[in-house]
């Protein structure tokens, strides 16, 4: 089948104008819970886009681990490519795509590190092998072979004795919201798109845009 023939009709839901009065954080949480109830693996995954020093965009999948009043929390190595990009430019973009319910959410905002205490607390809650992976990998750095990577992993495993401490270069970021766009697929590509933007007084303005 030609790629040009690969299409579907969107029939799952709608976003009426009454949703323009919604609290976008509450609407996001409701959509996320609906998607999680489907039982999909990695249901909290989203694409995080950053900018390098020369303005080159880069995207990768990360996992949402906490929703706070101030934003979304995710974790990574601070010296990774994404960490270096964020240190240079805190403006990021997040994209959630949930095809099973024909929805997409796009978020623009800024990120900053969460407290060291919170990062350490979450690190210790992770499975031991995940802790070990964070310790033994210099994320985004070149390595000669897969064998060398596994030797690093085994070396850390033998030295630590199973009690791991959160690395100084690993921890959480919080993505604060500046703009949230909710997309609901509709018939004939007449999709619903509602946009919420934060105002200076911490209130939201909202409007509909054409698909």
Name of the CATH first level: Mainly Beta
Which range best describes the helical content: under 10%, 10-25%, 25-40%, 40-55%, 55-70% or over 70%?
A: 25-40%
Order of helices and strands: HEEEEHEEHHHEEE
- Oligomer state of the chains in this structure: single chain
Q: In the CATH scheme, what's the topology name?
A: Pnp Oxidase, Chain A
Largest sheet: 9 strands, antiparallel
Could you say which structural class the secondary elements and strand pairing correspond to?
alpha+beta
Output the radius of gyration: 20 Å
Query: What value does the average pLDDT take?
Result: 92
Number of domains: 1
Number of strands: 9
Low-confidence stretches: none
Q: Overall 3D geometry?
A: globular
Question: What would you give as the CATH superfamily?
Answer: Electron Transport, Fmn-binding Protein, Chain A
How much beta, percentage-wise?
25-35%
How is this structure best described in words?
This protein has 211 residues and is α+β, with helices and mostly antiparallel strands. It has a single domain (3-126, 169-208), classed as Roll (Pnp Oxidase, Chain A), CATH 2.30.110.10. Helix content is 26%, strand content 33%. The protein has five helices and nine strands. The chain has helices spanning 24-36, 81-88, 116-125, 128-136, 146-160; strands at residues 45-51, 57-63, 66-68, 71-77, 91-98, 103-113, 170-184, 192-198, 204-208. Strands 1, 2, 3, 4, 5, 6, 7, 8 and 9 form a nine-stranded antiparallel β-sheet that branches. A hairpin with a 4-residue loop joins strand 5 (91-98) and strand 6 (103-113). Helix 4 (128-136) packs across helix 5 (146-160). The longest helix has 15 residues, at 146-160. The chain is globular and about 60 Å long.
